[in-house]
Specification:
There is one protein chain. This protein is α/β, with parallel strands linked by helices and 252 residues long. It has a single domain, classed as Rossmann fold. It has a 6-stranded mixed β-sheet with strand order 6-7-8-3-9-10, sandwiched between helices. Strands 2-1-4-5 form a 4-stranded antiparallel β-sheet, with helices on one face. Strand 1 and strand 2 form a beta hairpin. Helix 3 packs across helix 4, helix 3 runs parallel beside helix 6 and helix 4 packs across helix 6. It is globular.
Length: 252
């Protein structure tokens, strides 16, 4: 099976000389929930940002190695970065709805991409809210302000905003870090349903969450990939002592 994303020999260094990633290599398969976990400053978010080239916004950083998406390199001037970010969409830790209505949040990106058919826009709004488990809560107030939603609803709206663009890969950077347990559970329950249509790469907020949601997982430490395996195997029978120490709380 061709990987959806392949990362081979990736090094990433900031302008001040800080090496954020060192010789990282792994594949992400289609339609899996792939989890990157490890302590702070292990390179997880940096790696996510490389996958849809948000890293381009960082001055004076250098990248070595190869990252491919559907077999094609994502680097180089010939790559349409805006199209790449539509196909590899990212949801951040802090929900950031656009000022405006719930409907506007979901249609803005589509209209910017040239979609004008009101019927199609309405279908995308409902479909994305259904997928984000938010439709039943907001279907009667789509023209109300998105800023009036609760924290958990705002995060699911941001997920729906990504889904409305019908990406192929969804990057989730600590998406439940500020949510209550009920909202966290709702987001986690969505993931495997969403993986039937999308490939999901997630940085979780805890080892426990990583173990609950991962089809496969990768443990990162100080910018290095320590171990990657199926979730059940990695969390129950890690092969590297550093992975076991982190999972069992001996450090980090």
């Amino acid at each position: 099976m061709q990987p959806k994303i392949s990362i081979q020999g990736v090094y990433y260094t900031y302008g001040d000389g800080t090496e954020a990633l060192r010789n990282v290599s792994f594949d992400v398969l289609p339609h899996e929930v792939f989890v990157l976990f490890g302590p702070a400053r292990s390179g997880k978010t940096t790696l996510l940002r490389l996958l849809n080239r948000l890293s381009d916004l960082t001055d004076d950083a250098t990248l070595r190695g190869v990252i491919t998406f559907n077999g094609a390199s994502i680097s180089g001037r010939s790559v349409d970065v805006f199209d790449l970010r539509r196909r590899i969409s990212m949801v951040f830790a802090v929900p950031t709805p656009l000022p405006g209505s719930i409907r506007f949040n979901l249609t803005y990106g589509l209209q910017m991409a040239g979609m004008r058919d009101r019927r199609v826009l309405a279908e995308r709004v409902e479909q994305s809210l259904q997928q984000a488990a938010l439709w039943d809560e907001v279907k009667d107030r789509l023209d109300s302000s998105a800023m009036a939603l609760s924290g958990g609803q705002k995060q699911r709206l941001c997920l729906a905003r990504s889904l409305a663009l019908e990406p192929e890969v969804i990057l989730l950077d600590n998406p439940t870090s500020g949510l209550d347990p009920l909202s966290t559970n709702m987001v986690e329950e969505m993931l495997h349903d969403l993986s039937q249509r999308y490939t999901i790469i997630m940085v979780p907020h805890s080892v426990q969450q990583a173990a609950r949601v991962a089809d496969r997982a990768a443990f990162m430490l100080d910018g290095e990939l320590i171990e990657v395996a199926k979730g059940e195997r990695l969390f129950l029978h890690p092969q590297d002592q550093r992975t076991e120490d982190y999972i069992t709380g001996r450090f980090g």
